[in-house]
Amino acid sequence: MTSADSTSGPSGTDGSDIPPRKGFGVDVGGSGIKGGIVDMDTGQLIGDRFKLLTPHPATPAAVAKTIAAVVREFGWTGPLGVTYPGVVTHGIVRTAANVEKSWIGTNASDIISAELDGQEIVVLNDADAAGLAEERYGAGKDATGVVVLLTFGTGIGSAVIHNGKLLPNTEFGHLEVGGKEAEHRAASSVKEKKGWSYEKWAKQVTKVLVAIENAMSPELFIAGGGISRKADSWVPLLKNRTPVVPAALQNTAGIVGAAMAATRDVTH
Which residues are registered as beta bridge partners of 50? Predict the structure, then answer.
């Protein structure tokens, strides 16, 4: 099953004769694998993104084949970035909390590259990719100092960026907060499972934010994940010190951040 959508921005042209700098990113999710060409000057997609269903079981080999199919849809032959929902160091997967355990220890960069005739692949954590994109083009583009993005979904993903530089593979969702892992306390899935009101859930989110503040004093929190679309219902209820703003790029953040990683070597 395939789909193309129109969530992308303008073509990237600004009326000048200078062509946009282009990158390519692929965002691997639990239900879909989507990719697109990114205008690196604006952070907007050039044309539509393209999406295929995530294979099940989502083994490294099956996912790599699907990623290759997405890339070939665009005829892209240059370096590309790919997101992964876990810790990745030097292309090697270290954790698999919510995906196939067979990923652990695999060289994801090599597996994907082999499906694409040796193309250069940069693999990075999915929240890190979203954080890079939001810090440069989205909700954090005017911020200085330390910016922390948290994605609230099945778990809690995190990204820390300092003046444009990524501190990769933070796992704030696994911080112990009041005797419980942060994501077991304040992921949006917890709210849904327990039927909590926004008021009750916001109290738990506040506890997580305060724990992070006490450790590193960020200048800004960016709230991502699907529940960020309803930020007006819960962000004003938070009682932590640091400003919290909703993510701006939504569905394109992972693609854009992955493209950034491939073109700027931000993972090292």
Answer: 4, 35
Domain limits, the chain? 2-126+252-264, 139-248
Phi, psi of 96 (to 5 degrees): -150, 65
Does the pLDDT value for residue 228 go beyond 70? yes
d(Cα 197, Cα 206) in Å, to the nearest integer? Answer: 14
**Paired residues of 2 in beta bridges:** 52
Cα distance between residue 128 and residue 149, in whole Å: 8
CATH of 139-248, one of 2.60.200.40, 3.90.550.10, 3.60.21.10, 3.30.420.40: 3.30.420.40
| Nearest-angstrom CA–CA distance, 205 and 239 | 9
Mean pLDDT computed over 237-248: 98
DSSP 100-112: -GGGTT-BHHHHH
CA dihedral 80, 82, 87, 92 (to 10 degrees): -60
Mean pLDDT of 246-261: 95
Label residue 254 by pLDDT band (50, 70, 90). Answer: very high
Q: How confident is the model at residue 164 (pLDDT cuts 50, 70, 90)?
A: confident
Same fold, 2-126+252-264 and 139-248: yes
Unique residue bearing structure tokens 């919290």: 244
Q: Which CATH class is domain 2-126+252-264?
A: alpha beta
What element of type H or E holds 51?
strand 50-53
Instruction: In whole angstroms, give the CA distance from residue 210 to residue 123.
Output: 31
